């Protein structure tokens, strides 16, 4: 099985965004910011699952998956050498 085929939806989110805040920001629309007038409040609503267009991903899950993918990537590079 190819590495790309084995990725879950959360893994795709983790590889697409560098930070958890970048992920949260991607779920916030300009309309959200217009009505809420506060980016941190908009991020909290996405984090809690009240707002956003995608899957709910907690900060802990995001960071754990990010670390696991980086470890797997490092192991793969080391194995190739």
Automatic annotation (TrEMBL):
<dbReference type="GO" id="GO:0005634">
    <property type="term" value="C:nucleus"/>
</dbReference>
<dbReference type="GO" id="GO:0005737">
    <property type="term" value="C:cytoplasm"/>
</dbReference>
<protein>
    <recommendedName>
        <fullName>Cilia- and flagella-associated protein 299</fullName>
    </recommendedName>
</protein>
<keyword id="KW-0963">Cytoplasm</keyword>
<dbReference type="Pfam" id="PF14713">
    <property type="entry name" value="DUF4464"/>
</dbReference>
<comment type="function">
    <text>May be involved in spermatogenesis.</text>
</comment>
<keyword id="KW-0539">Nucleus</keyword>
<dbReference type="InterPro" id="IPR027887">
    <property type="entry name" value="DUF4464"/>
</dbReference>
């Amino acid at each position: 099985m190819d590495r790309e085929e084995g990725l879950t939806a959360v893994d795709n989110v983790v590889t697409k965004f560098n930070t958890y805040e970048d992920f949260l920001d991607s779920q916030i629309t300009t309309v959200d910011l217009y009505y809420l007038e506060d980016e941190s409040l908009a991020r909290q609503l996405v984090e809690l699952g009240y707002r956003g267009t995608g899957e709910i991903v907690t900060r802990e899950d995001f960071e754990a998956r990010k670390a696991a993918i980086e470890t797997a990537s490092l192991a793969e590079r080391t194995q190739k050498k």
